[in-house]
Amino acid sequence: MSQPWSPSGYIPRDFQSFPAGTYGSTDDQWYGEDWLYPESEWEERFKEQQALQSGLLHLRERYYDVLKSLNQTNHPLCWAFSTTKAAMYAMAKMGMPEILSPWWTAGVSNGWRNQGGWGAQSTKGLAGVGGVLMDACPDFSSRFDTAETRALAGKRRVIEWYDGGDNREKNRAILVTSFLRGLAPVCDSNDIGHSMCGAGLISINPLVWYEDNSWGAIDQYGPKGLWKRNRIPDGIIVPRVINPAD
């Protein structure tokens, strides 16, 4: 019997069962249309971002030892690696560059089952339980899930995010706005059966960007583990703020 997920671990989100706002429906977690930049401003804002070197790709180069591509090895957990990486970009932007454990994110999001999921599913885990540093959970094993580790995780919770939907035109606006605001969107893509973390714009017209793959720092689809993309994600969620650790 074939598995219901891709080899990378991605399962397309069922938006009938989990509609937009499911993973962020309260006032302080769901943002209205005003959060999105109008398309008429995209090109100028991108030029300004490039001039100031304030984009995600600049952030990745600045903290490359922390933000280089992670490696899910042979585990079907791309959906947790993508969200964990987006949280790491958010932390780096806040001046707290740290390597979080995607193994932990996956485990607390689905009960330590080595199986597929989608980006918003793991965002729920990061919001409800929180994330831990890689050395607190260096592998996918429930033996690391202790009361002490959960207490540490509570200090690194995603507390604000933007949950997208199945409208790909709306997802396009979320994607570009996120990049222009210096935020990393989690991009779920049905065409390649994969979930990755957006890593920065390449151009506005045509719209092309990099996503941060979770297969290590290989140059298969782009430099240093990045993957050049131009297809709008089928699902998108954007972690915005992580509560700072004590």
Structural category is: alpha+beta
N→C terminal distance: 47 Å
CATH architecture label name:
Alpha-Beta Complex
Amount of beta strand: 15-25%
> CATH topology, anyone?
Cathepsin B, Chain A
Counting DSSP H or I runs of 4 or more residues, the number of helices is: 8
Q: Kindly report the average pLDDT value.
A: 89
If strands are numbered along the chain, what order do they take across the biggest sheet? 1-6-2-3-4-5
Short characterization:
The chain has 246 residues and is an alpha+beta fold.
What key phrases describe this protein's structure?
single chain; 246 residues; alpha+beta; Cathepsin B, Chain A; 6-stranded antiparallel beta sheet; 31% helix; 15% strand; globular; disordered N terminus
Task: Explain the overall architecture.
The protein is an alpha+beta fold. 31% of the residues lie in helices and 15% in strands. The chain has a 6-stranded antiparallel β-sheet with strand order 1-6-2-3-4-5, sandwiched between helices. A hairpin with a 4-residue loop joins strand 2 (186-189) and strand 3 (194-203). Residues 1-5 and 25-30 have low confidence and may be disordered.
